[in-house]
Amino acid sequence: MNYISYTFIIKSEALSNQVASEILIAELGAVGFESFTENENGITAYIQKKDWHDTILNDIKLLQSEEVTINYDLKEIEQVNWNSEWEKNFKPIQVDKLVSIRAPFHEDPHLKYDLIIEPKMSFGTGHHETTHLMIQQLIHLNLNGKTVLDMGCGTGILAIFAEKKGAIKLDAIDIDAWCIDNTLDNIERNNAHNIDVYQGDASFLGFRKYDVIIANINRNILLQDLKVYVKNLNQNGTILLSGFYTENLPLIEKEANKYSLKLEKKLVRNNWVSAKFVIL
Description:
Elements: E1 3-12, H1 17-30, E2 35-39, E3 42-48, E4 68-77, H2 82-89, E5 93-95, E6 99-102, E7 113-116, H3 129-139, E8 147-151, H4 157-164, E9 169-174, H5 177-189, E10 195-199, E11 210-216, H6 219-231, E12 233-245, H7 249-257, E13 261-269, E14 272-279
Parallel strand pairs: 6-7, 8-9, 8-11, 9-10, 11-12
Antiparallel strand pairs: 1-3, 1-4, 2-3, 5-6, 12-14, 13-14
């Protein structure tokens, strides 16, 4: 299938680029855009050509805001062999000389943990700072016998790593159907057996309980759903959060404190943060 891509360049003195990008992604998602990549100057958004029409941006309120200047270009992307594209561009990485993250066609470096991920169009290969940081957090967390939630699972990489570290029951949840399919493929590829995969958002959780909750999403979703995560956290549980910049950490911490969560450890990489919170 062919896609239409829009590359948006954002300039604003009233809002940070991160906040403006998150608002734009939310608005675009509501009209049918299904995949996004972020950069320092804005975002690139993708929509299937069959779902696109030439007035699709008419109801995007941020584009009409006087506080934000957004320029964009669009182009049609012809159907490609995504596996071939990833094979050319997806390079293996290592985290703290303990975890290898590689595609099936890469050589096994024989580290303690080996994650085989074929990312397709889903987020979460370890190359992005937030995934890398969450892997680092999990390295130092005791997961033996734990129940784990991977919220916004993307490729499933964090849930898969958590199982390899000893978690015995895991739920991986994402709102994107593409991510669900990709996670299921990667679970099979890594011989994982204890991960259940669901499509949905935080409202799906119901009365489920977890020892560890992982959420690598974005600032606004974390602020909105943190109260739900706490409700689903077992006593003495741990929450790992990422998907935001260092300047957003005080806002996240303030919200977490409302629910008796204490910041215990933070990791920073290129201005991105992962934060470990525990119940007071």
